[in-house]
């Protein structure tokens, strides 16, 4: 008897303005609007959330560009539409600890929350260039907030780990020191690569034989090694900030 494999539901948690070159290294500067995505994954009896989205605009305006979030895009509302309550989530996987990927970790009371040890180490004291992305704004005491990655207990892992049947973490540093990708083995193999692959334009294409890094990164050598790892996995990558991922309600 065949058992149904994991299913991925991409969820929209808001939108924000960016420069195209931010996500696509070397691209011509151009304002774009990007979605903030989360992924709900059902694997057997395990209910998994990959990244927990952004805070409400009024919470985040002090530290980040203005963003949009309708009431339906609030993370808990997006999950409720799938019939999922916060206490139903067994596992949260943070692809990395940038604010827009872990802001709501504390809303899932039963979840074991996985992040890489190297990521937490970097998040605590990042290069000055990256403090904004973690909300570790040490240079402006009046604006200090508790960084979102410290608002819930993290379960730290080092390297590759199988999380649930058909769901594994791969350590893929580059965008950040401890970025991890989630490989979901359904009918096909899907890869949630976090911000290592924010848009489909980062992938190799017909006229572009090579992968293009995110403009935000800590180590290009690591990044290319991680890219080569993902290429060997051979699955289809679902980018972390590309609205076209939402063209389908489920990936299996
Ligand atoms: Zn990021």
Task: Describe it.
The model has no long low-confidence stretch (mean pLDDT 93). The chain is globular and about 55 Å long. The strands form two sheets. The chain has a seven-stranded mixed sheet. A five-stranded mixed sheet has the order 8-9-10-11-12. The chain is α/β, with parallel strands linked by helices. The protein has a single domain (7-247), classed as Metallo-beta-lactamase, Chain A (4-Layer Sandwich). The chain has seven helices and twelve strands. Bound molecules: zinc ion.
Protein traits:
252 residues; alpha/beta; Metallo-beta-lactamase, Chain A; 7-stranded mixed sheet; 5-stranded mixed sheet; 7 helices; 26% strand; globular; binds zinc ion
What is the N-to-C order of secondary-structure elements (H for helix, E for strand)? EHEEHEHEHEHHEEEEEHE
User: Rg from C-alpha positions?
Assistant: 17 Å
The CATH architecture designation is: 4-Layer Sandwich
Task: Tell me the overall shape.
Answer: globular
Taking pLDDT < 50 over at least 5 consecutive residues as the criterion, the unreliable ranges are none
For CATH, the homologous superfamily is named as: Ribonuclease Z/Hydroxyacylglutathione hydrolase-like
Class of secondary structure makeup = alpha/beta
Spatial strand arrangement across the major sheet: 4-1-2-3-5-6-7
Overall pLDDT confidence:
93
The total tally of domains equals 1
Compounds present?
A: zinc ion
Main sheet record: 7 strands, mixed
CATH class: Alpha Beta
Helix content: 10-25%
> What is the number of helical segments per DSSP (H or I, 4+ residues)?
7
CATH topology: Metallo-beta-lactamase, Chain A
Share in β-strands: 25-35%
Taking the alpha carbons of the first and last residues, their distance comes to 18 Å
Total strands: the figure is: 12
């Amino acid at each position: 008897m065949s058992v149904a494999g994991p299913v991925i539901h991409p969820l929209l948690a808001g939108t924000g303005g960016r420069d195209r070159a931010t996500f696509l290294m070397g691209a011509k500067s151009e304002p774009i609007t990007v979605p903030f995505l989360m992924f709900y994954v059902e694997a057997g009896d395990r209910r998994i959330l990959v990244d927990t989205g952004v805070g409400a605009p009024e919470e985040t305006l002090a530290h980040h560009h203005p963003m949009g979030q309708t009431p339906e895009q609030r993370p808990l509302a997006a999950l409720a539409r799938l019939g999922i309550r916060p206490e139903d989530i067994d596992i949260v996987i943070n692809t990395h600890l940038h604010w827009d990927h872990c802001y709501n970790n504390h809303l899932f009371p039963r979840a074991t929350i996985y992040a890489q040890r190297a990521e937490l180490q970097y998040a605590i004291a990042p290069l000055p260039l990256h403090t904004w992305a973690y909300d570790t704004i040490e240079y402006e005491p009046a604006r200090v907030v508790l960084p979102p990655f410290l608002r819930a207990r993290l379960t730290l892992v080092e390297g590759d780990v199988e999380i649930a049947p058909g769901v594994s973490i791969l350590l893929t540093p580059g965008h950040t020191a401890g970025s991890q990708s989630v490989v979901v083995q359904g009918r096909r193999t899907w890869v949630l690569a976090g911000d290592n692959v924010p848009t489909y334009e980062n992938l190799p294409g017909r006229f572009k034989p090579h992968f293009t890094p995110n403009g935000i990164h800590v180590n290009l050598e690591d990044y290319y090694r991680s890219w080569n790892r993902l290429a060997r996995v051979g699955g289809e990558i679902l980018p972390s900030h590309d609205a076209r991922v939402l063209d389908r309600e489920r990936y299996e």
